What we know:
The chain is of the alpha/beta class. It has ten helices and 13 strands. The protein has helices at residues 36-48, 67-75, 107-118, 142-154, 167-174, 190-199, 219-228, 232-243, 256-264, 272-279, and strands spanning 5-8, 12-15, 19-20, 53-55, 61-62, 65-66, 83-88, 90-92, 98-101, 123-129, 157-163, 181-183, 202-203.
Amino acid sequence: MTIKTFPLGGDLTIHRLGFGAMRLAMSTFDGPARDPRDGIAVLRRAVALGVNHIDTAGFYGRGTVRANELIRTALAPYQDDLVIATKVGPLPGPGGVPSGQATPGQLRALVEADLRALQLDRLDLVYLRVGGVTGPGGESIAERFAVLAGLREEGLIRHLGVSNVDAAQFTEARAIAPVTAVQNQYGEDMELLAECEASGIAYVPYFPLGGGRTPLDSERLGKVAARLGVSVAQVRIASLLASSPSMLAIPGTGSLAHLEENLAANDIRLVEEDLSGLRG
Ligand SMILES: NC(=O)c1ccc[n+]([C@@H]2O[C@H](COP(=O)([O-])OP(=O)(O)OC[C@H]3O[C@@H](n4cnc5c(N)ncnc54)[C@H](OP(=O)(O)O)[C@@H]3O)[C@@H](O)[C@H]2O)c1
């Protein structure tokens, strides 16, 4: 049986099927801002349906529609078991679009901005998001991660994560402070996943549904979806959850219908024949 929860950092019980907030403000990377009322409705429905892990960032937004503000408006005061994970690293540029990486000296202000925007005294999980859009950059992350470790010691952050990292950067961070979660692009690194699993660290792939760019209409997903009478997105989510007890899913959407479809994947049971069919 698939275990549905994960002990994040050992002390926060979260449902492994969570929610990615980046799409609340925009459907596509070059499209217009979405109606904030829809985002608020999606967030409230997500939590009503049992989501207690929301992945966000101060740099998620389009123009004046900001993911963190939507979360605060929709959900504050927060229920006790809600975990909001944020990311720092990319610097918000004009219109809130990320442009460049923060220096170590700029990280505190980004954490404090998240605290203010979300109206929190402490952030449950903060990832250091490094590298470019296409993947890890390979540079040392020690100085920046040490700053976040200091903010954790101060009590502004509960747990730390790393995002868009390679194995060497992951090792570098772990030598500085405990790493609770890794957030890399879907399908990139099975070895890192195995290491996370062995160490009780969450592995949280971004773009779990292809990021809205890669079509999910693969023949393998389609065959399993047809057999079960469900959608390919649901098969992708169910297969992610079945792949490792450390795997968390954060599909992103700004659509109520997609949200409900995605969360219903929690009830899909894939048998070994399905899983081996998906592996090819
Ligand atoms: N660490 C990082 O560098 C990084 C980078 C990117 C994203 N992230 C995080 O990862 C989360 C997930 O990534 P993502 O949102 O970019 O991509 P995703 O979850 O792979 O896919 C979202 C896209 O798929 C569509 N979609 C959602 N559910 C669907 C369904 N059931 N059927 C058909 N289409 C569906 C969405 O459109 P609609 O909105 O119209 O449903 C949206 O275009 C983000 O929300 C964010 O929290 C992190």
